[in-house]
Amino acid sequence: MVKHNKKPVHSSNKAKPLVLITLVVITLIVALFIITTKQEEKAKEPAQFSKQPSLLNQPTLGNDDASVSVIEFGDYKCPSCKSWSERIYPQLMKDYIDTGKIKFAYINVLFHGEESQLASLAAESVFAQDPQAFWTYHKALYAAQPAQANHDESWITQESVLDMAKTNIPQIDLIKLEEDIKASKALPEINIDSALVEQYNVQLTPTIMINGIVLDDPFDYNKIKELIDQELEDNK
Length: 236
Fold this sequence. Notes:
This is Dihydroneopterin aldolase. By secondary structure, the protein is an alpha+beta fold. The chain has one domain: Glutaredoxin (3-Layer(aba) Sandwich).
C-alpha cells in the first residue's frame, strides 16, 4: 500500500483571520479614542453665541457705547451669585466699569422660585423709579442673603424687600414701590429675562457672558480679564 504524505497546513493561513480581526479591533479602538477626544475638547470650549442678548431696558452700568458687554445672569437667592458679587464684581467695577471700558448688565434668573421672583420684582420696580438706585438696591439684596449654610431659609418677603429699600435708598417712593410689587407691575420685564434665560440655555448661576461668550468658570478673574482685553483689542 502506498502511503500518501499529507501536505503540511501552513499556520500562516490560520493566522490571517486572527490578524484581520486584531487590526479591525485596533482600528475601532483608535477611532473611538479620536471621537471621544474631539467630543471632550468640544465640551471644554466655552459656549459662544453670534448674537448677544438685547440689553434694551435692562439695568446697565459703564459705557453704553463700549465695544464689550459683560452680562451676569444672576439669582438673588443664589449663594454663588452673592459670592460673585462680593469677590469678582468689585474687581470688574474697578478695572473695567468705572474706567468706561465695558458695559455691564444684569439679567434676572428665577431658579429659586417665588422668593427669586419677589426679589426680582422689587429690584425691577426700583429700576423703573430710579435706574441709579437700582444698583444700590441690587447690592443690598445680596448683602441681606444669609450665610450659605442657611440660604434655603425664607428671607425674601414683602416686608424685607421694602425695609431694604427704606434703609438703602430712602429717596425712593416706598408707597409706589409697595403698590408696584403687589401688582407685579414689573412682571413683563421678568418674563423677558426668563425668555433670555431659556434662549441662551442658562443652566447655572451666576452665568457670565462676554460679547456672547459664556465663561466656564465665572470665578476665574484672570480668564475674565483675558477675554475682555482680547475683545477690546479685536474691536478697536
